[in-house]
Write a structure and sequence with these properties.
By secondary structure, this protein is mostly beta strands. Helix content is 7%, strand content 39%. It has helices at 88-91, 128-134, and strands at residues 8-9, 12-13, 22-24, 34-36, 43-49, 69-78, 92-96, 101-102, 106-111, 118-124, 138-145, 148-155.
């Protein structure tokens, strides 16, 4: 039975206030290309660093330049709700260890499924790939996803670079 004032969210009892901000690291603690979160707020995200990562499969044709842009494959999953209303371009930010925040330059959807959307998130800027290679840390932040104010996906080094 629900308490007075309680409601439903994504078909389940409302979890109440937003979940605390989270920070996620590569699974092995090193410069791995893939980070998977633990699904707070009923939404799971998997982020794969594409630029400079030779171990990933070939990407579909698109308007991106891996030698000039930082490219991430973002895959979202929920078992309730509609993730097609989540605007990655408005909610994603990138920061290198210099503390400067960048907005994405583009989002190329690969799947528009309301429960399993995915796409390529593109960041560009003068010398950005080289800056990422020498950065002590790279953070990709997704804001306001599944009632979590921010999810930070943090790499200690660009994948394929020596830590």
């Amino acid at each position: 039975m629900l308490a007075a004032g309680a409601g439903y969210w994504f078909g389940r009892p409302d979890p109440g206030p937003e979940v605390a901000a989270r920070v996620y690291w590569p699974l092995d603690g090193g410069p791995d290309a893939v980070i998977v979160d633990d699904g707070p707020g009923g939404v799971w995200a998997e982020v794969k660093w594409v630029t400079g990562n030779a171990s990933l499969p070939p990407l579909p044709p698109g308007s991106y330049e891996l030698d000039q842009q930082l490219v991430f494959l973002v895959s979202l999953t929920t078992h309730g709700g509609d993730l097609s209303k989540y605007h990655v371009l408005d909610q994603a930010r990138l920061s290198l260890s210099d503390g400067v925040w960048l907005a994405p330059a583009g989002w190329l959807p690969l799947s528009r499924d309301s429960h399993h959307p995915s796409g390529l998130l593109l960041f560009q800027g003068t010398g950005l790939v080289e800056k990422a290679r020498t950065a002590d840390r790279v953070d990709l932040v997704l804001q306001d996803l599944g009632r979590v104010p921010s999810r930070t996906y943090r790499w200690p080094k660009m994948p394929g670079e020596t830590p």
